[in-house]
Design goal:
Elements (H helix, E strand, L loop, with lengths): L11 H5 L2 H32 L1 H25 L5 H14 L16 H17 L20 E3 L2 E3 L3 E3 L10 H6 L6 E7 L12 E4 L4 E4 L8 H18 L4 H5 L13 E6 L10 H15 L5 E5 L14 H15 L9 E6 L6 H14 L3 E4 L18 H9 L3 E3 L4 H15 L4 E5 L5 H10 L3 E4 L1 H6 L3 H13 L4
Parallel strand pairs: 3-4, 3-13, 4-7, 7-8, 8-9, 9-10, 10-12, 12-13
Antiparallel strand pairs: 1-2, 5-6, 6-11
Helix pairs in contact: 7-9, 9-10, 10-11, 11-13, 13-14, 14-16
């Protein structure tokens, strides 16, 4: 018979008080204690929060945080803030201090051109997110009748404009207009019929001691089709926002092509590098193609025949060639699919400064019925006063002597003023003269206007002075006109 092990008979009371059961009992008691303690802790916290002193303290802390965020937003999105002039600009120059040739290709990394691209993208991104940089506060200069300008039937509040080169590809128009009401006109481009890369990098060089730049971009362009799509999208967004159709916007006599009241948009056009300057029919076709695709989105079309970075382009400034080209562009502009047709302006070179050069260009302008002349583009000359400061670095000396391209900056001002005066006298009152080159102050603008310029354009000054550049110039102009210094 199998052996059956008997289990001892354990009293019920003993099993209830077994060690395992005791542990459970203790754990339950502990949870109850913790729950009680937690409730008491929560009650204590709530009590402390409701105390008058703590309410005041928390209110102060919360208010400080909100106030700091609000102040930071207002400060950093205000173009008048010194941070944009004295921190952002030097920081970008320091971060992008290379030569725009990748290190793996033997270069020093991102440089001036990259800094330019990053700056524009940041400006655009902030605008799209609703944090667009703008000039806050009073704008007393807008009320000054002496600063106002009548241009092609539009009443502009100031004579200030951004020249081409800053927004080459029609991608940052509204963010740039937004930075200051002092900007009455923006010139975008240069835009060519077909996309082209431009010259090899590096092609933009800084001379910071003299606030100058040398560039040899060579009309790098997204092409007329892409630019036209971007410009058309602006019109469509504007129409949607204001309950209009695209056609109504284009046919309005009240809405400028800029889509900003009392402000104008100029589109600079040029020929492709592959188009030989000796083939005038092909050259005219390039410019006319740009007019047909871009003219409806422009208040002004700027014919660039003066860039030093496209081989043979400046030869188009000869009288016969220029008047043939300009006449073709004016004719095409008159057929633009827009009720208010764009005016045609030509941009000339500061290096075409001989007596016969000025006379021939002026004669071609009159013959073709061109509305204005922009004086002038960058120069291939190298004035030695760029190196006058003892603080000029060896790299700046190397760039000055070795790098080819067009020089821009304050050193151009004397030549700009001289040519403005000469063209004004040669062309008379029927043709508008624009001053472009070397402008860095309100005093410079007023001097250019005294010499005959109606509109004064800047670009390099903004590169070195930051986004508050045009607002500061407008304020300085008003101060001088009011009798200050």
């Amino acid at each position: 018979m199998p052996l059956i092990r008997s289990c001892p008979s354990t009293p019920l009371i003993t099993r209830i008080s077994s060690p395992s059961f005791q542990t459970t009992s203790i754990h339950t008691t502990t949870l109850r204690h913790q729950s009680h303690t937690s409730r008491r802790s929560i009650s204590t916290t709530a009590y402390n929060l409701n105390r008058t002193g703590n309410k005041i303290r928390n209110g102060i802390i919360g208010g400080t945080i909100v106030g700091t965020i609000g102040f930071s937003y207002l400060y950093f999105t205000d173009t008048r803030s010194v941070v944009h002039r004295y921190q952002v600009v030097p920081f970008l120059r320091w971060i992008y201090s290379g030569d725009d040739i990748p290190a793996e290709a033997g270069g020093k990394g991102a440089g001036a051109e990259k800094a330019h691209e990053v700056g524009l993208k940041a400006l655009r991104a902030l605008y799209d997110l609703g944090f667009g940089l703008r000039e806050r506060g009073a704008h007393e200069y807008l009320e000054s009748e002496e600063l106002g300008v009548e241009l092609f039937g539009h009443n502009l509040k100031t004579p200030l404009a951004i020249s081409a080169g800053l927004d080459k590809h029609a991608e940052c128009i509204d963010p740039l207009f937004n930075i200051s009401p002092a900007i009455s006109l923006i010139e975008i481009g240069c835009i060519t019929p077909l996309p082209q890369e431009g010259n090899p990098k590096p092609r933009m060089f800084r001379l910071p001691t003299s606030n100058s730049i040398i560039n040899r971009y060579g009309f790098n362009s997204v092409g007329a089709d892409t630019a036209a799509v971007r410009l058309r999208e602006r019109v469509r967004r504007y129409a949607l926002k204001h309950g209009l159709t695209e056609r109504e916007v284009l046919d309005s006599t009240e809405i400028p092509a800029s889509l900003w009241e009392n402000r104008l948009l100029a589109v600079q056009i040029g020929k492709n590098k592959s188009t030989p300057e000796t083939n005038m029919e092909a050259v005219k076709k390039d410019y006319i193609t740009c007019v047909e695709k871009l003219g409806r989105y422009a208040d002004i079309l700027v014919v660039n025949v003066s860039s030093p970075n496209t081989p043979g382009l400046r030869s188009l400034q000869k009288r016969e060639s220029l008047q043939e080209l300009l006449a073709a562009v004016v004719l095409a502009a008159g057929k633009t699919d827009r009720k208010v047709k764009p005016k045609v302006v030509v941009k000339v070179s500061p290096d075409s400064d001989g007596t016969e050069d000025v006379k021939d260009i002026s004669a071609a302008v009159k013959f073709a019925g061109v509305a204005g002349v922009i004086v002038a583009n960058t120069t291939v000359k190298r004035p030695l006063n760029v190196l006058a400061s003892p603080q000029v670095s060896e790299e700046e000396k190397r760039v000055f002597h070795k790098e080819i391209g067009g020089l821009s900056g304050p050193v151009l001002l004397p030549k700009t003023l001289e040519l403005v005066e000469r063209y004004s006298k040669e062309l008379g009152n029927d043709t508008v003269v624009f001053a472009s080159g070397g402008i860095i102050s309100g005093k410079d603008v007023l001097e250019a206007r005294k010499r005959g310029a109606k509109i004064v354009m800047g670009y390099t000054g903004m590169v070195y002075d930051g986004v508050g550049f045009f607002g500061r110039i407008a304020e300085e102009m008003k101060r001088i006109l009011d009798g200050g210094k």
